[in-house]
Amino acid sequence: MRNEPASVDPGWDALARTAAGDVGAFSIIVEAHQERLIRLCERMLGDADEARDAAQDVFLKAYRKAGDVQPQGQVYTWLYRIAVNHCLNKLRRRKLVRFLRFETGSTVADAAESPIFDPPDSRADPSEALEARQRWLATRKTIAKLPDNQKAVLILARFEGLSYRQIAEVLGITEGAVESRLVRAMRRIEAIEPRKGAQEKGGSRVSGTEGKR
Amino acid sequence: MNTTELELMRLLHGELTGEPARRLRERLERDPALAETYDRLRRSWESLALPPAAPVPPGFSQRTMARIRVERASRGVSWSLSWNNAPVWVRATAAAALVAGTVLGIGVGGRIPVAQIAVTATPDVVQETSAISPSQETPPQVAESSQAPQTPQETAPQVTPAQESSGADPGNDSDGMVDDIDLVDDTLAASYWDALEAESTESDGALP
For labeling, which of A21, B132, B168, B206 is most exposed (least CB within 10 Å)? Predict the structure, then answer.
C-alpha cells in the first residue's frame, strides 16, 4: 500500500472511464470502497445513518472530480481525503448548529460526537458488553475533545490502521506533521483520562446508566 | 515534543522497525522511567476503542449510482444549454446579432422625432408638420453641414443651450417666427376636434 505506481490500482482506470462518460465504470469504485468509506465516516461522525449519507455524498463528490484527479498512489487515499474533509465539515456544521441553539459547551462536546450511540453488540456476557459499550462511549467523548486536525490523524492511525505515509497522503501534509499531531493527540488523551477516571469514581451511577442505553 | 516521545509513538504504531526498533527496546529495558512513559502511552492507545462498523446496507451501491445518474442527467441538461458548448459560429452570430440589434435600436430611436410619433394617428397633421419636425431634432451643426442650403422660410428656429438654460422663450425671439411646438400642439388639437365633430355629425346628426 506504500507508494505503488498509479497503474497498480485499477480504480484509476475506472475513474478515467467515468470521466470519459462511462457512468457504469464508477460502480466499480463504489463497490470496491463503500465498506471502508462508510466505516470511516461512521468513526468520524459517530452515527451510522449519517455515515451512510456522508459516504454517498463522498462518492458523489468523487464522481464530480473524476475528470480532474491526477492518478497518484491509491484511489482509496484520494477517497479518504474527500471523506475526511467532508466529515470534518459536517462536524463543524453540527457544532455550529448546537452553538446557535445556545447549548452549553459540555453538551456540545458530548453530543457532537455521540448523537445516537447505540451500536449492536453480539457479546454473550452482559457485563463484557456493558464494559465495551462504556469504552466506546468514553473513546467517542475523548475524540470529540480533540482539535479537528488531531482527530483525523488519530482516527486514521488508530482505527483505520494507516501508516504515517498514508495518513500524510490522505491529509496532504508531511509525515512529520502526522507524527507531531499524533503525539499531541495522545498527550491530550493522557491528560483527559486521569480526570475522566476521577469523574467515573465519583459518579459511576451516571456512566452505568449511559452504558445501558 | 522530544525525540524520545516521537520514537515511542513510532514504536507503538509500528512505524519503527528493524535496528532502530531493537535499540529502543533495549533502552526501554535499561531505563525504567522511559519504560513507564511507554507503558502509559500504550495503555492510553489501547484504551481507545470504537464499535465495529455496521455492515454496508443492502442496495447502498445501487442507490449511490442512482444518485450519480440523476446528477449526471441534470448536469447534462445544463451542459447542453451552455454557451461553452455552442459552436463558434453560433456564438459569433449571436454576438453579431446582439451588436446589430443594439446599434439599430439606438439609431432608430434617435432618429424618430417625438412630434412625429405623437401624430402618427392623424396623417393629415403629419403632412402639415413634416416640413417643421426634422429641423427640431437636427442639431445646428449637422443641419448646416449635411443639408443643402435652405431658404429662410424653410429653416426652423434653433434653440441654443443658452436659451434652454436661461428659460428664454424660443417663440418670442428676435426673428419673430412662431413657436414650432405650439404650432404642432394647436394643429393636433384642432384636427382632433374636427375629427370628433365630423364623426358625431355622421353618427347622429348632432354636435356633442
Answer: B206
Asked if A190's CB is within 8 angstroms of B40's CB, the reply is yes
Distance from CA of A86 to the nearest CA of B (A): 16
Average pLDDT for residues B134-145, to the nearest whole number?
47
A-chain residues within 8 Å CB-CB of B61? 27, 30-31, 34
- Write the pLDDT tens digit of every residue in A76-122: 999 999 999 999 999 988 888 877 776 655 544 454 444 445 555 66
Among A12-16, A209-213, B1-5, B114-118, the range of highest mean pLDDT: A12-16
pTM value surpassing 0.90 = no
Which one of A30, A154, A163 makes the best mutation probe of the B interface by having the most chain B beta carbons within 10 Å?
A: A30
| DSSP output for B32-90 | HHHHHHHHHHHHHHHH---PPPPPPPTTHHHHHHHHHHHHHHHHHHHHHT-GGGS-HHH
Q: Do A42 and B9 touch (CB under 8 A)?
A: no
> Does A20 contact B at CB distance below 8 Å?
no
Read off φ and ψ for residue B38, nearest 5 degrees.
Answer: -65, -40
Contact A51, B93 (CB under 8 A): no
Q: Do residue A136 and residue B49 have CB atoms under 8 angstroms apart?
A: yes
Is the predicted ipTM greater than 0.95, yes or no?
Answer: no
Nearest-CA distance A206 → chain B (Å): 20
